[in-house]
Amino acid sequence: MQYARTEQQTLTQTDLFHNALMATRLKHHAFEQPVHASPQEDEPDGSYSEMTLQGSARQCLQWLAPVLRELSQKDCRRWLTLIDPPASVSQQWLRGANLDPQRIMIVRSKAGMDSLKLCCDLLKMGGSHTVVSWLDRDSCVAPRLERAAQVGRCQSLNVHLG
Prior knowledge:
The chain is of the alpha/beta class. It has helices spanning 13-29, 57-72, 91-96, 115-125, 141-152, and strands at residues 47-53, 79-83, 104-107, 128-133, 155-161. Strand 2, helix 3 (91-96) and strand 3 (104-107) form a beta-alpha-beta unit. Helix 1 packs across helix 2 (57-72) and helix 4 runs parallel beside helix 5 (141-152). It starts with 12 loop residues before the first helix and ends with a strand.
């Protein structure tokens, strides 16, 4: 069965991802006390979000591209950092997806490195407004990334590809 949509009900892919990310952020911070930032301090306090994408690797990257585009266009002097993205994510892919590779830093861990520790270290440094990781699901991942994001006053997004 199909439902007719009006123009007002039609959302773009970017709108859908933005709404999902904002809903996660609102749910996560719904019961916290409001924090009054100083006028100079417009940086986020730090939070953790997850996103699960299903489909082929190419299809998942097509779904992820608008999210990365929005994050890379953030009016911020800090980096958008991608830690251990799929091998197909390169400077060429970034340009092909209309992303600005000069605002995005791709970090690939070496064999034997602990990717979670690397991600936490980059979050704590605070040089990025958002750190996007592709870490496996584990009960210790979310709390560690959340704490590190709070220390670095930045956002952490962990992507699961299905």
